[in-house]
Amino acid sequence: MTGETIPYIDLEKISEQFECNKLRNACEKWGCFRIINHSIPLTLMDEMKMVVVALHDLPMDIKKNNKDVIPGSGYFGPSVFNPLIESVGLYDMGSSQAIQDFCSQLNATPHQRQIMETYGILDADFEDWPCQYRINNYNFTSETIGSFGASAHIDSGFLTILQDDENVGGLEVMDNYGSFVSVAPFHGALLANLGDIARAWSNGRFCNVKHRVLCKEPTTRYSIATFMLGPRKGNVEAPKELVDHDHPLLYRPFTYEEYRTLRVSDNNDRDKFLQACEVLELLRLV
Ligand SMILES: O=C(O)CCC(=O)C(=O)O
Ligand SMILES: [Fe+2]
C-alpha cells in the first residue's frame, strides 16, 4: 500500500491553472478522481437515490422486463462470478423513447420518471454521445463480508460518472503501483472513472482505471453509474497534438461499436464482461 488517496477536483475552480493541472495529473496517474462542487443539487442526488431503492425493491420478474438494447445494457441478476450484484440499465439516456421504454418496463411512476430525466439531462447532451445508465444494487450480508460485489474490471467507455453509495463503502480503485485503494463514501460528491476509450483517445496517456467493489458490511449498497461511452458516429482516434516522435500512435482508429463488438464477443457472458479484459490490445499498433 502506498497510503495515497484519490485526487479531488473542485469544479468551481476548474478554470484555474492549478486545478486544471490537478485534473490532468489525475487522468494520467489515476484515471479516477472525486468531483466536488459540481452543479448537481444534493436534493436531486438524494431523490435519485430514492428512485433507485424503489426500483430495486420491485419483484425480480418485473426487473427482468428491462431487456438489453445493446448487448449487456439491460437487467442482469446475481450470477456465479458476481453473486451479490443485481442491476438495471438504460441505453441511452438521450433518447426519450428509450426512457419511455425503461419506465414502462419497470412500472415507474411519473414522479420517478421526472427525477430520472432531470438527473440525466445534465450529461446526456455531451457531443451527442450515447449515455448508458446502470443502477446497481449489492446485496451484502454478514456471510459475504470479504467477497466481491463486482470483480475487478475496467469500464469500456470514455468516462463514467458514479454516484456511489453515500453510506456504504467497498469501492476500490487500482493505483499507479498496482495496489487497490479504498474510495471512502462522500455524500454529495461524484466519482469520475476513465475507461478504455479514454486510454485509446489519449494515445495511452490517460489511465483506464481498474476497479472493484468489496463487501465490507452487511447492508445493501447502491450505486448509479452514468457511462459516457464514445462517439455515436466516427472514429475514436488520438488528436494529432498527442502523437509525435516520442509518442507514436498506439491504437488504430476504431468506432465505439467496433470496440464493443470485440468486447462482447471476446466475453460472451456477463461475468466475463465484468472482468478486466484486454480488448485494447487487439487494437494496438505498436
Ligand atoms: O458500484 C460501484 O461503486 C461501481 C460500479 C461499477 O464499477 C460499474 O457499474 O461499472
Ligand atoms: Fe465499473
UniProtKB/TrEMBL annotation:
Origin: domain of life: Eukaryota
UniProt entry keywords in alphabetical sequence: Dioxygenase, Iron, Metal-binding, Oxidoreductase
InterPro entries the UniProt entry points to: DIOX_N (IPR026992), IPNS-like_FE2OG_OXY (IPR044861), IPNS-like_sf (IPR027443), Iron_ascorbate_oxido_reductase (IPR050231), Oxoglu/Fe-dep_dioxygenase_dom (IPR005123)
PROSITE patterns cross-referenced by the UniProt entry: FE2OG_OXY
Residues of the Fe2OG dioxygenase domain: 129-231
GO molecular function, one term: 2-oxoglutarate-dependent dioxygenase activity
Coiled-coil portions: none
Similarity comment text for this entry: Belongs to the iron/ascorbate-dependent oxidoreductase family.
Stored PANTHER family: 2-OXOGLUTARATE (2OG) AND FE(II)-DEPENDENT OXYGENASE SUPERFAMILY PROTEIN-RELATED
Name of the protein in question: 2-oxoglutarate-dependent dioxygenase
Organism lineage: Eukaryota, Viridiplantae, Streptophyta, Embryophyta, Tracheophyta
